[in-house]
Each structure stands twice: as structure tokens, then as C-alpha cells.
């Protein structure tokens, strides 16, 4: 059966670390980094390559629009 | 960790499903982390892109946190004095009846100093769209009490909570304008969860489409958070908003045109 896999690309320097995407992720695969960006915010990142389905929930709740989502069917 | 992007093989143009709209430029928004203004801006921009009206839309910026919103949109925008955005929008729309004109205002702008302009623009049934961001507080000036501050809610000018006997009742201006015959579409939405964001986007699309039909003012209230003003982290502020704001400011359509 074809499986849907996705990935997100976070614009790290524009992420303000509000963590709203973390709660919006249905598969709980977004975490906050331990490192900080140039403004001192901990930024969001994808922590599990298999968990992301590319549902775009994180991207549409992101107040700063820093998340880009890709999705593809893989066999 | 900065280069830790997983599933790199998926990053191809044909797999792209979501990207920030080109109607918003690359400037970093000045809003606090987690502020609903950013989401509301993006939804308006996405609807403008989907309707393909970038060159035919004129926005009116308010005074408040979103006073600099014209820095983020790749559309024509005009700044109005405090509370007077509906009056400016009236003038713009009457000079350019074919353009899509919207105002974007906070609760201090629309429901306090701009009450008269708001009510009269809605009562005249100007064919404009008003976006009203309600976070129950004056965010930009330091978290003072606004007309929409809830009973018992703490702000910098009501440190013991809003006392109804002394400071009056919170104002439901959205229900107020829904009573006016000039409004065609009045709704209250939120932008804190994926489902609420999707509903709000549909409402924005409807409002801009009703404007093209020339049937009156469309008015969208977006209940939002102000985590800095409420002195909470963003996620906690959204939970507080669900528990306290939504019972008073109930989400949903308040008035829809009769043909629907």
C-alpha cells in the first residue's frame, strides 16, 4: 500500500519559538530545538522522518508562516 | 541541528503542498511570538491570492499592534488615523467602486475610539469588508483594559480584574453591528487551531465575495490571543482563550445573507 510521507522546512531565522505548531501536529513529530537562532528563539524542527504525513496543520497555524510543507506518496 | 532537515528526498517542487503566499513579503513581522495577527494576515493574503485580486484590493491599516501591517503585504494599503479606518475605506470604496476594500482593526481601534465610524459605516451599508481582531486588551500600549476586556480579566489598568460596577460591561460589538440593516455578513471566528484557521479562511473568502455582490458591509471578528498582554506563554494563552473568551464571545455566523 502506498504510504504518504511528508516533511517540513522551517525558516529557522524567522521562527519565534511560540510552539503553537507543536500542539497542532497530529502525529507529534515537531519539537523545539535546544539551540537558538540569531534572535535567541528556540526554533521548531521535525524530529521523526517517518511520522510526518504532510498534513500542513503546523504550517497553517504558524503565525509567522515559516513552515513549508512537502508531501509525496512512497511505496 | 540547523541543517537537520529530514526526508530531504521529498523536497521537490512537485511535492510542495504549502508555502507562505507571495502576497506577504519576506519582512519578519514585528508581532510577539504566537500572536494571532500573523495568522490573520496570512489568511487574508492567501484569500487575495486565491481570488487573484492582488491588483484590485486596497487595505486600510489601523492604529494598534497592526499599525505597520502595510509593511508585510504586497498590495495597496493606506494608513488611517485611530479608529477611522471604516471612514477612510468608505471614501476609497466610493472613489473606486470596482476595487475590493477592506479594513483591519483591533478592538481598541474598532470598538473604542472608532465605535462611531464602525457603526455608521455598517449602518450605511458601505460595500467594504471589516476584519476585527479581538484580543480583549490594548496590546500595543501595554495591556490596558479595552471595551472587550472580560469581567474579572486582569489588565494593567484593572490589576484586580475588570469590575462591572465600576468599569461597565464588555462590549459585543459584533452582535451590535449584526443588528444593523446595512451589514450582510457578520461572523466570529478564531485562528488558534488548524480547524479554526480553515473556518476563518472560508469566512474571509465569503466576505470578500459578498463585497463583489454589493449587498452591504461584511464584518469578520477574529477572537485572538495577546500572550504578552495576558502575561502567558502562547500555548497557554490559547487555552485560556478557549476557556474564558469563547463562552462570552461565541464563535459562529451571526448573520448571513438571505440567499444562503
Q: Indicate the overall shape of chain B.
A: globular
The class by helix and strand makeup of chain B works out as alpha/beta
Number of strands of chain A: 4
CATH topology of chain B: Rossmann fold
Low-confidence stretches of chain A: none
Q: Write down the overall geometry of chain A.
A: elongated
CATH class of chain A: Alpha Beta
Q: What is the chains' assembly state?
A: heterodimer
Q: How confident overall, as mean pLDDT of chain B? A: 94
The N- to C-terminal Cα distance of chain B equals: 51 Å
Integer tally of domains of chain A = 1
Please state the average pLDDT score of chain A: 92
Number of strands of chain B: 10
Show unreliable segments of chain B: none
Name of the level-1 CATH class of chain B: Alpha Beta
Which CATH architecture of chain B is right?
3-Layer(aba) Sandwich
CATH superfamily of chain B: Thiamin diphosphate (ThDP)-binding fold, Pyr/PP domains
Order of helices and strands of chain A: EHEEHE
List keywords for this structure.
heterodimer, A: 75 residues, mainly beta, Alpha-Beta Plaits, two-stranded antiparallel ribbon, 2 helices, elongated, B: 260 residues, alpha/beta, Rossmann fold, seven-stranded mixed β-sheet, 18% strand, globular
Description:
The complex is a heterodimer of chains A (75) and B (260). Chain A is 13% helix and 37% strand. With 75 residues, chain A is mainly beta. In chain A, strands 1-4 form a two-stranded antiparallel sheet. A two-stranded antiparallel ribbon of chain A has the order 2-3. The N and C termini of chain A lie close together (7 Å). Chain B has a single domain (29-250), classed as 3-Layer(aba) Sandwich (Rossmann fold). Helix content of chain B is 35%, strand content 18%. In chain B, the strands form 2 sheets. In chain B, strands 3-2-4-5-9-8-10 form a 7-stranded mixed sheet, sandwiched between helices. In chain B, strand 6 (137-138) and strand 7 (144-145) form a beta hairpin. The radius of gyration of chain B is 18 Å and the shape is globular. The model of chain B has no long low-confidence stretch (mean pLDDT 94). At the A-B interface, strand 1, helix 1, strand 2, helix 2 and strand 4 of A face strand 1, helix 1, helix 7 and helix 9 of B. Strand 4 (67-74) of chain A pairs antiparallel with strand 1 (16-18) of chain B.
Amino acid at each position: 500500500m502506498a504510504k504518504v510521507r511528508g516533511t517540513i522546512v522551517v525558516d529557522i531565522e524567522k521562527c519565534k519559538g511560540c510552539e503553537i505548531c507543536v500542539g497542532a501536529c497530529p502525529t507529534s513529530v515537531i519539537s523545539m530545538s535546544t539551540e537558538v537562532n540569531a534572535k535567541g528563539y528556540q526554533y521548531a524542527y521535525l524530529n521523526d522522518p517517518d511520522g510526518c504525513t504532510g498534513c500542513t496543520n503546523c504550517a497553517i497555524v504558524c503565525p509567522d508562516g515559516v513552515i513549508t510543507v512537502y508531501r509525496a506518496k512512497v511505496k | 541541528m540547523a541543517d537537520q532537515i529530514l526526508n530531504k528526498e521529498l523536497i521537490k517542487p512537485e511535492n510542495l503542498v504549502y508555502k507562505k503566499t507571495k502576497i506577504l513579503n519576506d519582512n519578519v513581522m514585528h508581532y510577539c511570538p504566537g500572536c494571532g495577527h500573523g495568522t490573520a494576515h496570512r489568511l487574508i493574503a492567501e484569500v487575495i491570492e486565491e481570488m487573484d485580486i492582488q491588483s484590485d484590493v486596497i487595505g486600510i491599516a489601523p492604529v494598534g499592534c497592526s499599525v505597520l501591517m502595510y509593511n508585510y503585504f504586497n498590495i495597496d494599503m493606506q494608513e488611517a488615523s485611530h479608529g477611522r479606518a471604516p471612514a477612510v475605506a468608505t471614501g476609497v470604496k466610493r472613489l473606486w467602486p470596482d476595487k475590493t476594500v477592506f479594513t483591519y482593526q483591533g478592538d481598541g481601534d474598532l470598538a473604542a475610539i472608532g465605535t462611531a465610524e464602525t457603526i455608521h459605516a455598517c449602518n450605511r451599508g458601505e460595500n467594504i469588508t471589516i476584519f476585527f481582531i479581538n484580543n480583549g486588551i490594548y496590546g500595543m500600549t501595554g495591556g490596558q483594559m479595552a471595551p472587550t476586556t472580560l469581567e474579572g480579566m486582569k489588565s494593567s489598568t484593572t490589576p484586580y480584574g475588570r469590575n462591572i460596577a465600576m468599569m461597565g460591561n464588555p462590549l459585543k460589538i459584533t452582535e451590535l453591528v449584526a443588528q444593523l440593516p446595512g451589514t450582510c455578513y457578520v461572523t466570529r471566528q478564531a485562528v488558534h487551531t488548524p480547524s479554526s484557521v480553515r473556518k476563518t479562511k472560508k469566512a474571509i473568502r465569503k466576505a470578500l465575495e459578498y463585497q463583489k455582490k454589493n449587498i452591504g458591509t461584511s464584518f469578520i471578528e477574529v477572537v485572538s490571543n495577546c500572550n504578552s498582554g495576558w502575561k502567558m506563554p502562547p500555548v497557554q494563552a490559547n487555552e485560556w482563550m478557549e476557556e474564558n473568551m469563547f463562552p462570552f464571545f461565541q464563535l459562529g455566523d451571526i448573520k448571513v445573507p438571505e440567499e444562503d
